[in-house]
Amino acid sequence: MLLIIFAVILLIFGIVFGISAAIMGRNLKRARNPRAFKLLKKRRRNTVFLTLVSFSVSVALLLSYALPIYRMNAMKNGGYDLVQTYAAVLKNSGKDKAYLYLPVQIVPYGDSFAVSNGRNEWFSYETVETAENTEEQKWLYQCNKTLGVSKINLSGQQAIEIHLGEDGRLYVNGSFPYMKYDSNQKVYSGVLAKHVSDFYCSGNTLYYLTDDNKLYALGYNEYGQMGDATNRNKTAPVFIMDDVISLSGSATHAMFIDHFGNLYATGNNSDSGLGDGTMTNASSPQKIMGGVQSAAVGNFFSVILAQNGDVYTCGRNTSGQCGNGTKNGTAKPVKIGEGAKKIAASGDSAAYMTEDGKVFAWGKNGEKCLVNDDTAYLNTPTLVAENAYDIAFNNNSLAVLTRARTVSVSGSNRTDTKSLFQNILELNADVPDEYKSPFTEEDKLDISELGK
User: Fold this and answer.
1) Based on CB atoms within 10 Å of each CB, which residue in 29, 139, 178, 444 is the most buried?
2) Cα 435 to the chain's mean position, in Å?
3) Cα–Cα–Cα angle for 214, 215, 218, rounded to 5 degrees
């Protein structure tokens, strides 16, 4: 909006300068004094220059605002489809450029999943009607971003939409249930924060990171999951801590990782999901361990990925969520796997992906998301897929992005109950060996004693 206002102001200035130049041109014809003529001519020349600059900058600003909107609307209205786009580019531009359109990351999105390609364009799959009045699933364009994926969260009985714009603005529409101060409940509509790099909405609590790695939170805070040293709900963002680079949370507790690889946890700890060795809730971030790469939080349990690839769990284990081979929970992180590249958790289930593309999963087998039988749960990490490039867990559904750039889902997101993982995106891509992985190789520290 500020961009448009500035462009309009420049346009008005350009018009004023143009009128002034025209008036000066008339006065030049009437000038009799040579000195006055020379001075007026110089002023007119400068005014014409200012007119051209004002008009040029104004038009450039308006185009920079309008073209992306036009492009996005054209993609949406035209049914911009990932498979069709890939096929067209492959045919017209050759394989090298076509690889930019292949999926490189998969994340939870609403009740399903979204993927991004090498051009940082994000797609989600939706059921659409064809010309023959039949329904089919298509991957439709959602947004183009440099900072993260747009997310939509359904929170309790009310819907709240949260979107991180390409300009770093966090847009929120709706309200968080249970966020009442006395008789007032905050309803958001518009920009909540600027300079945002990432966010996470869990249950009724919203966390977000700014460009300078500051963590803020607002919303439901009964268990102290916001980490602001209180148990009071917040209708406005409050600062939590500095130097945060990663965050994950559930409806009752959250975990943060700082620049130095230190893991912090806050919130409900009735089942020791924080991993601090106690069952006492924490209303401010408690340091759990160092040398951590990422964390994934489920219902009253946590999964931790160390920088050396080891996988740790802690917390509730009634459905095998801790993957330690028993139904006994653990008060501190216990190692259950190694060689991992990525972890994922949702509800009472979790999974990790190894460097060679193997996917191991454990926990509750809701909607048959882990194995295609009546097994209630798996209490140890079990191989469920191979040749994986990325994974994501969401609402009793596990999604696997393969190295061939196909996307397969299990559980609540599949429509064919006869197979465990059903392909919902098939590109038949012949991916070269030199194609870069989304995960960067880094020197790994010897932290084998962590969690013991």
Assistant:
1) 139
2) 23
3) 140
Mean pLDDT of the chain: 83
Distances (CA, A) of 411 to 83, 106, 140, 391: 23, 16, 22, 14
Give the integer Cα–Cα distance in Å for 452 and 439. 27
pLDDT digits (tens, 9 = 90+) for 401-432: 998 888 999 999 887 766 788 888 888 766 55
Length of the chain, please? 452
Residue 392's H or E segment, with its range, is strand 388-393
Q: CA–CA separation, 43 vs 195, rounded Å?
A: 43
Task: Give residues with Cβ within 8 angstroms of 378, minimum separation 6.
Answer: 320, 323, 361, 362, 363, 365, 370, 371
pTM for the model stands at: 0.77
Strand (E) or helix (H) holding 379: strand 377-385
Six token digits for residue 234: 């917040």
Most confident of 129-133, 205-209, 288-292: 288-292
- Angle, nearest 10°, between helix axes 2-30 and 34-77? 150
